[in-house]
Amino acid sequence: MRSLGQRPVTGRDEDPRVAELRVAVARLRRELAALRADFPDRAIAEEELAALAAMAADGSPEIPRLRGSLLLVAGAIGSMSALAGPLREVRDAVDLFGRAAHRDQGSPPGGSASRAGDRHGPAAAGRSSDALW
Predict the structure, then answer these.
(1) pLDDT in tens, 69-112
(2) Is the pLDDT of residue 13 over 50?
(3) pLDDT > 90: what percent of the chain?
(4) What percent of the chain lies above the pLDDT cut of 70?
(5) Contacts for 39-44: CB closer than 8 Å, 24+ residues apart
(6) Is 107 among the domain residues?
(7) Is residue 108 part of a domain?
(8) 3 is a domain residue
(9) Which class for 32: exposed (0-12), middle (13-18), buried (19 or more C-beta within 10 A)?
């Protein structure tokens, strides 16, 4: 077990954020596999965790894809309290990568592409992921 803030030793020149993501995803996958309870979106959670693991194995994950997979996993797992800790670790690992740049660099945050009350676009995506925690 690692102490808080301690990074895994990988033995290779690996981005520590990627290593943290890999470890967090592996733990959540193990915990999910050990969970006997069946729930409707289990297959979605397993597929997206596999996608996250593949992105971590690749070594240079795309931030929007990381966040999208995280949202799908969180939605699929729902309120399974047994998975809350491992899910939090995956979220923290994804957060190490920071936020994705806005598609339209000319528009400031909150501009016409992200109006208040808009359910789509960069601002909505940020609200969605923040609302999960």
Answers:
(1) 999 999 999 888 999 999 999 999 999 998 755 444 444 444 44
(2) yes
(3) 56
(4) 65
(5) 39/77, 39/78, 39/80, 41/75, 41/76, 41/77, 41/78, 42/76, 44/72, 44/73, 44/75, 44/76
(6) no
(7) no
(8) no
(9) buried
**120 or 42: which carries more pLDDT confidence?**
42
Helices (H), 3-104: 16-34, 42-58, 63-77, 84-95
Domain enclosing residue 43, as ranges: 16-101+116-131
Sequence-separated (6 or more) residues with CB below 8 Å from residue 53: 22, 25, 26, 29
Does 106 reside within a domain? Answer: no
Residue pair 119/127 in contact (Cβ under 8 Å)? The answer is no
Which one, of 106, 112, 110, 111, lies nearest residue 127 by Cα?
A: 110
